[in-house]
Amino acid sequence: MDKRLIWLAVGSFTMSTVGFVFSSLLPSIAADTHTTVPHAGHLITVFSLSYAIGAPLLSALAGAADRRRLLVAAMLAFVLGNGIAATSVSFTTLLLAQIVMGMASGLFAATAQATAVSLAGPEHRALAISIVVGGTTFAVALGAPLGALIATVWGWRGTFGAVALLGLACAIVLWLRLPRGLSGTKLTLSERLAAIGRPGVASSLMVTFLYLTGAFVIISYLAPLAIDGAGLSPMSLPGLLLAFGVGAVIGNLSSGYLADQIGATRMVVLSLISALIVSLVIAFGLHFLAPNLAGLLLIGIMLPWGIIGWAFPPAQASRIVGFAPDVAHLTLSLNASAIYLGIAGGTAIGGRVLENLAAADLGFFAALFPVAALAVLYAGLRSYRRRFAATPAE
User: Fold this and answer.
1) In this predicted model, what pLDDT tens digit does every residue of 140-176 receive, in sequence order?
2) How far apart are CA 231 and CA 225, in angstroms?
3) In angstroms, how far is CA 270 from the centroid of its own chain?
4) What pLDDT, in 10s, does the model give residues 47-64?
5) Burial of 346 (0-12, 13-18, 19+ CB in 10 A)
């Protein structure tokens, strides 16, 4: 393995940490900016939308640029965004910082995967991509709880400052270690989006979107769910995120093996059904259990919830690649955009639930989306089978 891939993974870790640590920062950000937690949730929505739009759009604009320069520029823009956030004096400034960070993250992610394949060679494409994407998994497992812990000591501004320092160190190493003259392939935006037209791809991207929407109706508002819904202390948030992150690593590592054993589609279906059950358990538990028992329930469910939640992405990615292996680099990039569109959608919906109902109601709304995803998955498979009289690779 080319050791330079590790630094691309570190870059993914750094950028993804911002997206996943927000769930613990929202109450303190809301208090300092004199707004509500649901309104502060717009920061997650803006970051995620900027990522989803920035990945294909900026990649199309800068597709033929030197990848070393492009990756470092994206990382430095991300560092700038974190610096703006850490020193912001208004909520509007924070929103602008999220746009900068989201666009930079989308560009970095798309470019990093393409660069990883170039460094490792086509025969090691899957391994190279998995290493870079693995940085995101460790952002959930380590970055988010560490960011939450930093926030308890130095405040939410300290979290953004720490991420900026890590990003700056990563940019320096990437500049020193990546080769010069590694040019990308220029594809127009329409050429990048054309992969959606491949059989099976559009419905799969919709399943990804719906799954992440349901998940982030709850995840984005974990802090009010834990504090207001389950009666836990704010000091419990780093521990909750750590338990969820450990589960994410287990789920991510085991998903590929299980998908090989039972089939990627069955693994996705199992993840969707499990997500539905977890959402309902959280909703009913917080509604009908005594506060002390509700808190214990939430603590106890974090590890299995992480396993379930992160068993989905590898299996779903395997399905999407199986539909169109020759354009895997494009479909995986589109899948990443669908993930962040889902995060944006789930955060927006969860915020409206909190504005009008109780934190305990988040689970009921979250449960609607795995059901919708199962319906889309079933309809997509039927359409695919009618067209080719065969099932996708399982």
Assistant:
1) 888 888 898 999 889 999 999 999 999 999 999 989 8
2) 9
3) 20
4) 999 999 888 888 778 767
5) buried
Q: Tokens representing 120?
A: 């490792």
Q: Which two tokens stand for residue 244?
A: 């969820």
Chain centroid to CA 51: how far? 10
pLDDT at 179: 81
Mean pLDDT, to the nearest integer, of 32-42?
A: 92
Examine the pLDDT at 327 and tell me if it is beyond 80. Answer: no
Backbone angles phi, psi at 393, to 5 degrees: -55, 125
- The stretch 176-192 carries a mean pLDDT of 75
